[in-house]
Amino acid sequence: MNEKETYFDIFAFKDSKIVRIEVKYKTKNLDTKMADEKFSLKNQGAQDQGRHDFIKDISRLEKALGIYHDSTGFAIFLTNDESYWKKPTRDVDTADKDFRIHEGVP
After folding, report:
1. How distant is the alpha carbon of residue 82 from its chain centre?
2. Could you tell me the residue range of the domain that residue 91 belongs to?
């Protein structure tokens, strides 16, 4: 693996094991207040690119775990954008069709 492939968002060490973690945080516009804290999230859009990047992260994790057997990996996707987890309303054959990640969501 080259240097770019071995970079992960979070490295953790437990005993003699390494935990590699990749995190994606994709937001949809939201302005709200909870308790005394205000939240303002911007609309990032480009869901096709977000899905592609997440699948790419999973692929890099799988490759690393195949080489470094003494490690564990996690890919975490945080979002308030329902278009990531909902089935598309139109069944259109788009360029990013293979990167959809809504399967298995009730």
Report:
1. 14
2. 10-98
